[in-house]
Amino acid sequence: MTDPRIEKLAEVLVNHSTHVKPGELVVISADVNAMPLVEATFAAVLKAGGQPEFVPRCESLREILIAQGSEAQIARPSGLQQWLIENASVHIVFWSETNTKFLSRYDPGRVALAQQARKPVMMRFMQREAEGTLRWVGTQFPTHGAAQDAGMSLSQYEDFVYGAGLLHLPDPAAAWDAIKQRQERVVDFLRGKKSLRFRAPADPAAGGHDGTDLRVDVSAATWINCFGDSNFPDGEVFAGPTLPPAGFGADGHVNYTYPACYQEREVEGVRLVFKGGRVVDATAKRGEDFLHRMLDQDPGARNMGEIAIGTNYAITDFSRNILFDEKIGGTFHAAVGAGYPKSGNTNDSGLHWDMVCDLRPRRSSAGNRSEERRVGKECRSR
């Protein structure tokens, strides 16, 4: 029996997130293990009058390419993906990895090469999105692999995923419209601000690092209200840092609270130092070589491409899935690499790596209560 929340999710994706119109080419991209959601979305697109096309993805074929392909083969951009990005009106993507670590033991240089092959598609995708000629949404289809990363059973993870999307409510789309209105007040407050400053004190439990003190130039940024129209679930506001010569970009340092997950790898204890919007020093307690390989893959990879504030207070726990983790209410995240043109940042890179820093008060081990002292949060704007 199909989970009724799947059909409800499909309706939200087609009618709320992407607003499919009659005659539009709608590409649905997923691994075959997400077929229940693919089928429900395919039907919802037909009901809306769109022209759905299913384009399968396959993690085993990605692994074969990385393992056996020549450097020239790995670095070749996909002509099919380029055509789809150029011609589709709507792109709906489902992430449903069976093994979320399937590339973690491969040479980081080959993984970076594959990432560079995606760069023309990613940059054109961002350009069309900024122009308003391409709409898209991506969401998670629950799998055992993702559930294991989150420390949950599959049924618990399904509740987590669908609960974060408000699919337990009678009218999820109406609920997300209400979130849009609330977050618009945040956007109104941030609009016109010249800079933001994020501060968090040192955490002795994390080795006594020097905490976080990061200033970000948003003087020419466009703040984006995220309410389920691109990511689902959603809950953030983000902007493109103003890079030199128009602004100072970002200055200071950030010690990321959670492991930075990217390309099936976890990098723990990441500390980045920014100067002029660019990473000038990068260290990690584990996975530092991979971190450097990603940051050195092209000239734009060390630039800050996004700054964002998580606003989804229904998501409280780290799940090792950036779709959810970057939305946690009381956190901020900054992405190194490509910027979204619609947000005022046109940084060009094959990388876009979001890393999350918690600004919530620390919890004491005794009684799980917030500590009396302020360990935690300060985000100032001017």
Primary descriptors:
18 strands; 25% strand; five-stranded parallel beta sheet; six-stranded antiparallel beta sheet; alpha+beta; globular; 382 residues
Which helices and strands, and how do they pair?
Elements: H1 4-17, E1 25-31, H2 35-48, E2 51-57, H3 59-68, H4 71-74, H5 79-87, E3 90-95, H6 108-117, H7 119-131, E4 135-140, H8 144-149, H9 154-164, H10 172-190, E5 195-200, E6 212-217, E7 224-226, E8 231-232, E9 236-239, E10 250-255, E11 260-262, E12 265-267, E13 271-275, E14 278-283, H11 288-295, E15 304-310, H12 322-325, E16 331-337, E17 352-358, E18 378-381
Parallel strand pairs: 1-2, 1-3, 3-4, 4-8
Antiparallel strand pairs: 5-6, 5-18, 6-10, 7-9, 9-15, 10-13, 11-12, 13-14, 15-16, 16-17
Helix pairs in contact: 1-2, 5-7
